Structures are given as C-alpha cells and as structure tokens.
Amino acid sequence: MTGSQYRSGVPDNWFVDPVQLGVPGVRRPLEGDGNTLSWQTDALCAQTDPEAFFPEKGGSTRDAKRICTTCDVRGECLEYALQNDERFGIWGGLSERERRKLKRRAG
C-alpha cells in the first residue's frame, strides 16, 4: 500500500503540521498567543498511529484515550473539537458520543 492510500478509512496524512507547512500566521504558541491550531505541534497523537484515533464503528478507543491522558495539549484539542463540531475520531480524550453528551450538559 502506498503512502497516499487509506488504511482502515484513515488517511495516512491525517495530521498536517501547519508549522512545518509554513502556513502564514501559524507558529508555536507564545505567551498570550491566540492561534487556534498551534497546539497541534505538541499533540502526542501526531507521533503515533492515527488508526487508534479513528477506530472503525464498534472498535476500541482505549489506546487513543490512554495516549490522550498524558498529552499536554488535551484541553486545546478537546476545545477545538467542540468548537468545530468534529464528528469523527477521538479528540481531547473523548469520543464523538462523549463530546455530544458534554455539549448537551453545557448547553
């Protein structure tokens, strides 16, 4: 399988580091920096197999959630997923169903 093909429905390049791409205005966060995507450069999921974060329906989320528990940017990740209504994958240690419940309780 080539790098451009999908494995289990997860794109090989699902994480794109905006800092490495040179996207204007995207950089490592500085004190008081409001950049919404800069947290991704420190995300542990970017250093692991993305399949764990996008399990097939009914698949285990345990491995992804375990990685999230030690991630320094877990809060930023969850906030991003909630603000952008992410419908797939584990974000900030929560599944889509768990994020929906969280939004209902908060709303």
Automatic annotation (TrEMBL):
Cofactor(s) in the UniProt record: [4Fe-4S] cluster
A GO BP entry: negative regulation of DNA-templated transcription
An MF annotation (GO) of this entry: DNA binding
All residue ranges annotated as the 4Fe-4S Wbl-type domain in the record: 44-101
KW DNA-binding (keyword) present: yes
GO annotations of cellular component type: cytoplasm
Annotated residues for binding of [4Fe-4S] cluster: C45, C68, C71, C77
Co-factor remark: Binds 1 [4Fe-4S] cluster per subunit. Following nitrosylation of the [4Fe-4S] cluster binds 1 [4Fe-8(NO)] cluster per subunit.
Source superkingdom: Bacteria
Keywords attached to this entry: 4Fe-4S, Cytoplasm, Disulfide bond, DNA-binding, Iron, Iron-sulfur, Metal-binding, Transcription, Transcription regulation
Localization terms from the record: Cytoplasm
Chief location bin: cytoplasm
Name of the protein this chain belongs to: Transcriptional regulator WhiB
Source organism per UniProt: Microbacterium rhizomatis
Organism phylogeny: Bacteria, Bacillati, Actinomycetota, Actinomycetes, Micrococcales
